[in-house]
Design goal:
Elements lengths: L1 E4 L8 H4 L6 E5 L5 E4 L5 H17 L5 E2 L7 E4 L14 H11 L7 E8 L14 E5 L28 E13 L13 E4 L11 E4 L5 E6 L6 E3 L7 E11 H8 L8
Antiparallel strand pairs: 1-2, 2-3, 3-11, 4-5, 5-6, 6-13, 7-8, 8-11, 8-13, 9-10, 9-12
């Protein structure tokens, strides 16, 4: 287990660096390599993000849609949150920080959403996130990002007539926890990290990451980055879940094409 300053190198924009509390982020090797951080953002900016979460739930409830069949969360896409403080997660600066900490050369494509699990949500299923994702248009430039839009189905690549699309594979996953005040052990809603998939849903054999406000867990997506939502949450559980991506060909060279999990 090692600690590092997330913003130590390379140089980043001053406005971006000033959003962080400059605490050390911990790099862990078990049950698979991941980075864990507490007090990620300065209190003022974190409060702005939680205020935005509550505003969107209050004023734009129609934006919250089911994340996936059989999954207990609803959510708002990051592409619908680009006019306020939560837009930090779709910035090029954040993309590059995530890619660097994950140790990947990422494409500039960002996929993700703000997730909400109501109280009493069930345990999820172990998955590794090694999935394809399709993005519209040409690859973004070095200072740009690309988010999914409604012209291309992110999961299948089906698209509107005349629309170009590129296939990528998820490369680094981030879960950032917010809007969960007063969480205590026993409240549930953790993220379970598995040593191997045979552990399935046996709680004693997993590492549980608590959904503490202003904390995150980040990991490279690999064939063994098995994790899930641990469920049984006593209160609402909120998080931002997102990925940066690598080209499909690179994922195949590294892991083998048969390891990529199609929807």
């Amino acid at each position: 287990m090692t600690s590092e300053s997330a913003l130590a190198t390379p140089a980043v924009a001053q406005w971006f660096a000033e959003l962080f509390a400059h605490r050390r982020w911990v790099r862990r090797s078990q049950p698979f390599p991941h980075v864990y951080a507490r007090d990620v953002f300065v209190p003022e900016f974190y409060q702005r993000m939680t205020d935005e979460l509550h505003r969107v739930r209050r004023e734009r409830p129609e934006l919250f849609v089911s994340i996936a069949d059989g999954y207990s969360a609803d959510g708002v896409r990051l592409s619908d949150l680009r006019d306020g403080p939560l837009a930090i997660f779709s910035s090029r600066e954040w993309h590059d920080l995530v890619a660097r900490l994950g140790g990947v050369e990422a494409t500039g494509d960002i996929e993700g959403s703000l997730h909400h699990h109501p109280p009493g949500s069930p345990f999820g299923w172990p998955h590794n996130d090694l999935n394809p994702a399709w993005f519209p248009g040409p690859a973004p430039g070095p200072d740009e990002v690309r988010l999914p839009d409604r012209t291309v189905d992110t999961k299948t690549g089906s698209r509107e007539s005349g629309v170009a699309a590129r296939e990528t594979v998820r490369a680094v996953a981030v879960l950032f926890y917010l809007g969960n005040p007063g969480w205590q052990p026993g409240d549930g809603g953790e993220t379970a990290l598995y040593d191997h998939v045979a552990d399935d849903a046996a709680l004693p054999s997993v590492t549980l990451v608590p959904p503490l406000d202003n904390s995150l867990v980040l990991f490279e997506v690999t064939p063994r980055s098995w994790h899930t939502f641990a469920g049984n949450n006593a209160k609402d559980r909120n998080s931002v879940v997102m990925w940066v991506h690598r080209p499909r060909a690179e994922a195949e060279r590294r892991w083998g094409g048969d390891t990529i999990v199609h929807w």
